[in-house]
Amino acid sequence: MKTVTPINTHVLLPWLSRLIAVKRGETRALLWSFAYFYLLLCSYYIIRPIRGEMVIRIGVDNLQWLLLATFLAMLAVVPLFGWLTNRVVRAKLLPATYLFFSACLITFYFAFNRFSETWQLSGVFFVWVNVFNLFVVSVFWSFMSDIFDEDQSRRLFAFIAAGGTAGALTGPLVTGLLVDKVGLANLMLVSAGVLICAIFCTRSLSQWARSKTNEQFDKQSVLDETKLAGSIWDGIRLVLRSRYLLGICLLILMYTLLSTFLAIQQAKLVETLLTDSAERTQLFAAVDFAANFLTLLLQLFLTSRIVNSLGLGKTLAILPTLLIFGFLAIAIVPSLAVMVVVQVVRRAGNYALAKPAREMLFVVLGREEKYKAKNFVDTTIHRSGDTISAWIFTGMKTLGMNAHAIALISAALAAVWMFIALWLGRQYDDKNSQTSDSL
């Protein structure tokens, strides 16, 4: 394997220490992880606004069918990933995953040039982007929870997540600037090129893990070349046998339920108020940029401090608490401006606080749970939540509920979500204490 030139981290350590409690020997891995997540989310956010435009082209009223198709695609992908984890070592599995998705993007480039206006292609692309997003991010965080321990996750995960947010800022900026000049199809090639660069980060992190001489990282070196034994259904069985994992599933279902409600209402208003395709794509890109900029500020300066001062449970409860007030505001003034503000707060709160905190929940679990159960939770559970949410929303509209009523119901559901978060925080503390006592 070709050796990647190591980063000179001694000069950077004092500067990083002002932002985050990084220790000597961790800086190299921290920076590679930051760059890794930056590239992944930059690649995704280049095409994310295009996904929003696909929804408008097909029709917002058909969104529940698109989400159902996404869920069915997940049902096919998750067993395939379980089969691969039994046969491919981690050091090869991650690069192969990103090469596959890059090849898909190149295929879409040719398809959009040939069949640019077909609703079938728009639907396939929408489903693929949803699978791509959840899958590559889930694999990334599985890798992070595998190479960093509980103490490191509390100190470093917020900064690593900030790398993703920086990429999420760059992606929509690229799309907003280039979509008028190069068109949608050429952005697929840009996204594919960025994704391929992430492979070099996985190789560097694997080398970092193998280079350590203490017992912890000797173990990581072995794990890097170890396959995960068991059947493709182990992830499902692990979830069903654990109240803790079921609680995480419920937490994600509540998040997807309310996020879908908000996204559908926003998309309907955009469909009504804006008629130009490029203008809609630029609006979606602008919302992405605003949410990601706020996220980056929170991740760099507040997330680690909040987790360390409040604990995991209360940190997880911040977002649903904010959404209680957000949905009440929508109930009072159901305008596009208010929905955009709530959408920005929801996404910033998720990526700056809720998402890093959810990833920390897996650090206290075993390795099979980190890969097999986590992948099932992050993909199938997440997308089934999207699908169920879209059909529930359709049912509410069929029953004659207006935006005011849906917003009030959403506020009540956010309160339930808040209590689930607090319960999971107590369970995490108990598991962490048991792990510490056994050492």
How would you characterize the overall build of this protein?
The structure is a single chain. This protein has 439 residues and is mostly helical. The chain is built from 15 helices and no strands. The chain is globular, with a radius of gyration of 21 Å. The N terminus is likely disordered.
Topology:
Elements: H1 13-19, H2 27-58, H3 63-85, H4 90-114, H5 119-147, H6 150-211, H7 215-224, H8 234-240, H9 243-273, H10 277-301, H11 303-310, H12 312-332, H13 336-361, H14 367-398, H15 403-438
Helix pairs in contact: 2-5, 2-6, 2-10, 3-5, 3-14, 4-5, 4-6, 5-14, 6-7, 6-10, 6-11, 6-13, 8-14, 9-13, 9-14, 9-15, 10-13, 11-12, 12-13, 12-15
Task: Provide a concise account of the structure shown.
The protein is mostly helical and 439 residues long. 85% of the residues lie in helices and 0% in strands.
Please give a handful of descriptors for the protein shown.
15 helices; disordered N terminus; mainly alpha
Computed over alpha carbons, the radius of gyration is 21 Å
Discrete helix count: 15
Low-confidence stretches: 1-9, 213-225, 228-232
Q: Please identify the structural class as seen in this structure.
A: mainly alpha
Question: pLDDT average, as an integer?
Answer: 80
Helix content: over 70%
Number of strands: 0
- Strand-residue proportion: under 5%
End-to-end Cα distance, whole Å, is 35 Å
Tell me which oligomeric state these chains represent.
single chain
Assign an overall shape: globular
Largest sheet: none
Order of helices and strands: HHHHHHHHHHHHHHH
